[in-house]
Amino acid sequence: MILNFCLPAKLHSVNDTERSKYISGGVITENFTVPKGLERAVDFWIDIYSKYDTDQIIVHDTDNYVIYEVIDVSDINKLPYFTQKIKDEIIDSRIIRVQKKYRDALKALQNNKQNVQDMDPFIINAYNKFADIKDENKFSEASAPGRMRVQKGQRSQFKKGLYYSGKYIPEMEKIFKHYNLPGELARLPFVESYFNPQATSYKQASGIWQFMKGTGREYLKVKNGYDERKDPVISTHAAAKLLKESYLFLDKNWPLAITAYNHGRFGIKRAIQRSGNNDLVKLIRGYKGINFGFATKNFYAEFLAALYIEKNYKNFFEDVNLAKTGNYGVVVTVKAMKVSQLQLLLDVDKEEIKMYNPAISQRVFKEDGDIPQGSRIMIPIGMFRRLLSKTEVVKDLKDYVRFI
Length: 404
Known about the structure:
By secondary structure, the chain is mostly helical. It has helices at about 40-50, 75, 85-110, 120-130, 140, 155-180, 190, 215-220, 230-250, 255-265, 265-275, 280-285, 295-310, 340-345, 350-355, 360-365, 380-390, 390-395; strands spanning about 55-60, 65-70, 150, 220-225, 225, 330-335, 335-340, 370, 375-380, 400-404. It has 3 domains: about 55-150, no CATH class; about 155-315, Lysozyme (Orthogonal Bundle); about 330-404, no CATH class. The chain is about 50% helix and about 10% strand. The strands form 4 sheets. The chain has a 3-stranded antiparallel β-sheet with strand order 2-1-3, with helices on one face. Helix 1 crosses helix 13 (about 295-310), helix 9 (about 230-250) crosses helix 10 and helix 10 packs across helix 11. The chain is elongated, with a radius of gyration of 25 Å.
């Protein structure tokens, strides 16, 4: 589908006197405020996360975040007997028609020699959408290839993420505090995975923090059958280390360090060196690196939007209940063992092991495969305490697991 096609944004014509329609004074928390020039981007992502849902496709300008039209495709998604491929083709054709319509209107406005109010009502509507953009070439630039993009709404996804965030954020904040980092960073998984430990991207990034396999191996155990990228606790320690390294490497600049989580700190450093400045908004507007595209340029704005919504979620969602934090104990395997052996040793049901340990692959559970030596196994706190209370049992288990 067209929805997966993202082109770079330049943001060079954003009005610096712009104010957020949501965030008073741009202040979200003591540690994070909206930089001047990023207000439109943050407001756009607040709307994507909280206003528009997955049946709504937003056709918008990549630079100024002007929303041309919201296409409701719920009628297409409900069509019976159609494969998803056919539905996607129908949706794509609808998107292409809308884009052409607005592109033609923008070109007409750029070439216009008459009073705008004498033009077609649809063209007047397009004109009014750019009323507060101060750039004499705004219509020709907005009609250029790559400037018009589509984005699917995410309201239901974000709402689901809010529920799961209740289970993870309290412990994540403690972890970040341990590394002397702002607790607000625990909201970054909204952007990455909506707090889904099993999330896997098309590039094979995995887990709540969406570590790529190569980066993951620098901080985590990534083995056949056991992948700590999917362990919410251990992967948060890894994310904290990575974010802290980026923060220190990039002169203690959080907008750059958080953007580096998407683009890599060496990529951000290269952008700084080539552009001659370390201001994120200026980089977004002026830097033209090959991989410095829409996703990278919007990553910090998405984080700020997610942070603001989470801090004020009752203003955006009426009926959200947050999941409760799970209490658990931890053992570490001293030697490789099968799932059935671990069940027997710890007297824990397989389904509970599966529920508490997303790092263990589904294949291992299905085939009663080996859990590698050194694997961190979480078990319900009640069972953990019961085991610890039995001194002889703990002694008998010392050759198999270590209690921590």
